[in-house]
Design goal:
By secondary structure, this protein is an alpha/beta fold. The protein contains 6 helices and 6 strands; from the N terminus they run E-H-E-H-E-H-H-H-E-H-E-E. The chain has a single domain, classed as Phosphoglycerate mutase-like (Rossmann fold, 3-Layer(aba) Sandwich). The two termini are 27 Å apart.
Length: 180
Amino acid sequence: MTTRLVLICHAATSATRRAAFPLDEPIEAPPPAYAGRADLTLSAPATSCRQTAGALGLTPMIDERLRDCDYGHWAGRTLGDLASADPAAVHEWLTDATSAPHGGESTMDLLDRAAGWLDDLPRDHRRIVAVTHPSVIKAAVVHAILATPRSYWRIDVPPLSRTVLSGHPAKWTLRSLAAT
């Protein structure tokens, strides 16, 4: 059975407006109701994802693997501030997918987690909707299209966008990317 997976990026937060590494914070404004249907609805545990799902009229199960990347001690700070304070660490993080100079999760760890989540999705659901973070959606796309880890940095996922994959574990196709 082919699954249609709709990945919805949470609504804007203070961190997304400031281009900062996120904290667990509320959304700034509720989105309009979701017009689609789903056999299974999932959400990351963060406040922004749960609030977005609720505002969309969804009642999701919480899935820990949909949590945002752990940015360690960079959480709440902007990339610009960090680039001024520690340009070598930022450069390392942006060029080496295995590094985590912030003390959190590396990009490679995130890519592996998202790949495992995708490949573990149940095959008995035709439509799955998951509300999560831009980082997780980007990682899922990288896995789905068999891209290299460096491709992660070339994907933009804005708030409330929908990315659609179809297929089944180990064989995904990108149907649409970051549609609003």
